[in-house]
Design a protein that fits this description.
Blueprint: E1 15-21, H1 28-35, E2 39-44, E3 59-63, H2 65-72, H3 88-93, E4 98-102, E5 106-107, H4 119-128, E6 163-172, H5 178-183, E7 196-198, E8 211-215, H6 216-219, H7 238-253, E9 256-266, H8 272-295, H9 305-320, H10 326-344
Parallel strand pairs: 1-2, 1-4, 2-3, 6-9
Antiparallel strand pairs: 4-8, 5-9, 6-8, 7-9
Family: Belongs to the RGP family.
Enzyme class: isomerase
Protein name: UDP-arabinopyranose mutase
Length: about 350
Amino acid sequence: MASPVTPTPILKDELDIVIPTIRNLDFLEMWRPFFQPYHLIIVQDGDPSKVIKVPQGFDYELYNRNDINRILGPKASCISFKDSACRCFGYMVSKKKYIFTIDDDCFVAKDPSGDDINALEQHIKNLLSPSTPYFFNTLYDPYREGADFVRGYPFSLREGVPTAVSHGLWLNIPDYDAPTQLVKPRERNTRFVDAVMTIPRGTLFPMCGMNLAFDRELIGPAMYFGLMGDGQPIGRYDDMWAGWCMKVICDHLGLGVKTGLPYIWHSKASNPFVNLKKEYKGIYWQEELIPFFQTTSLPKECTTVQSCYKELSKQVKAKLGKVDDYFNKLADAMLTWIEAWDELNPSTQLQNGK
């Protein structure tokens, strides 16, 4: 009897999996059936002399702080240290069209029927189908099998726009801030909502980096996770900062962002008291940051992600610099990030990406 033919994994040669870590990557054993065919980029945070063990059989490259300093030189200052924001270095050195990034405390979740969820496959489906940011479809994702556009949905908008980002969710430990963790220490998310939706144009959202995929060619230069962690007055806002910047740019360029499926199993809650220390300033600052991003507009001359991001950095310095000097440093780091991105990815620079 002939053995069954194993289907080729989707986008096997077009996608990198980026993982930030400070520990051995035993969690990959659980993901082996889904991740083994793909190339991994591991960004080691913290002490570069520590040896990180990766299970056998995975195709990977591993970068530590010494590598980051060697590759970027003085521009390495834009990559955070002692914070999971270091993952965005992996986005920069990748040569693939798509990125999936996951934290090392995220395991395979099960759907309501008890089957393992292939999170990567669902992210790919999200990225390969259009988004509908200009008009909300009440049946959520109209491109999904068994769904369609509802009555009253304009036919001129049914083609949708390219999807730049797929934002997945979590079962078990929710992605809460420290005050909510302290108030609800035992709360667990057990609700599996079988839906994907496009986040409407003009609407911001808190992006979580632990279960996230994006089209690197469409939006990669905007996925900078900022200056966080060691030597900075704030932490745990890295993915959210990237999400706000990215969403403003996607709205400007006519790109889509999806959220919902896939779920992963978030295995452990971080310490709320440690988190509070990291988030303390951010909890105040976000009351200024959100109105800034809600009212920011980019000039029509900005037609590439790079030019949009440079313009955004100018506005950050002009309008948020007065909130705290940290935002002047962050604005400078945003420019350094783009310069480093363009040095490592010269083919992504377009003629008008000045």
